[in-house]
Design brief:
- The chain has about 220 residues and is α/β, with parallel strands linked by helices.
- About 30% of the residues lie in helices and about 30% in strands.
- The chain has six helices and ten strands, in the order βββαβββαααβαβαββ.
- Strands 6-7-8-3-9-10 form a six-stranded mixed β-sheet, sandwiched between helices. The chain has a four-stranded antiparallel β-sheet with strand order 2-1-4-5, with helices on one face.
- Helix 2 crosses helix 3 and helix 3 (about 110-120) packs across helix 4 (about 135-145).
- The structure holds adenosine-5'-triphosphate and magnesium ion.
- The site of adenosine-5'-triphosphate has 12 residues, from strand 2 and helix 1.
Length: about 220
């Protein structure tokens, strides 16, 4: 098995509060991995750790064979939606993504346009993102996550705030991304989304991660 993300003996505490407790898991490349569990169980925290946003108390995380904080500071080939994506409210969709794309300066105007179109938004719209609905912001969040064509996507409740059609659209985008060989880690409270999308399923309970479906049975 080719491993995209390897998590080894990861612990995370804030003072006395243990948020992640000895997490050990390997996420296989090219598969969709579901993360379920109650509110406050540690799903978002695990994702933040994988993205290098918060330091670990102990343990290590390897992404495509390289160790986080040792071989690199922030993993490069990762697209992320964590919690409700934040954008600059007085810019339109294109300007928001352009602003973020300029940090890496890897992609063209056309590629930004294409990612905005791909999630069902209008790249030429002048509407400021501050006037977007929650679902529109969520779609733009996905556009941002995919615009640099990363191998790995970390998606924390990407269906949040989407209506029925929005959920169906988002599922189809994610199935397309899966078909194109991306590795996806997705947290969701929807059993149906997990069922439709995921090859493996893991449950977080008070910081302890247990594999519910390994994808090998
Ligand atoms: N900066 C912080 N300082 C202290 N505790 C924190 C911090 N960030 C998160 N926590 C705690 O870590 C625990 C796990 O939170 P996390 O956001 O990972 O839960 P979750 O599983 O994503 O929940 P939800 O389903 O509601 O999104 C919670 O008890 C939370 O209060
Ligand atoms: Mg969460």
């Amino acid at each position: 098995m080719c491993v995209a993300i390897k998590i080894e003996n990861v612990n995370k505490s804030f003072g006395e509060t243990v948020v992640l407790s000895n997490v050990n898991i390997e996420f296989e490349k090219g598969k969709v991995h579901g993360l379920i569990g109650r509110n406050g169980s540690g799903k978002t925290m695990l994702m933040k750790c994988i993205c290098g946003f918060v330091p670990l108390s102990s343990g290590q995380i390897m992404i495509n064979g390289k160790t986080l904080k040792k071989d690199f500071d922030m993993p490069k080939d990762i697209g992320v939606i964590i919690e409700t994506p934040g954008f600059l409210p007085s810019y339109n969709a294109y300007k928001n993504l352009k602003f973020l794309a300029d940090i890496q300066s890897k992609i063209s105007k056309q590629e930004i346009y294409d990612s905005i179109s791909r999630v069902g938004l209008d790249p030429k719209s002048k509407k400021h993102v501050g006037k977007y609905s929650l679902g529109m912001r969520q779609r733009l969040g996905l556009a941002q996550a995919i615009m640099e064509d990363p191998d790995i996507l970390i998606l924390d409740e990407p269906m949040n705030g989407l209506d029925k059609d929005g959920v169906a659209d988002m599922r189809n985008y994610l199935l397309d991304l899966k078909a194109s060989g991306k590795t996806i880690l997705i947290a969701s409270h929807s059993a149906e989304d997990i069922d439709v999308l995921c090859d493996t399923v893991h449950e977080m309970d008070k910081g302890v991660l247990t594999t519910i479906r390994s994808g090998k049975e």
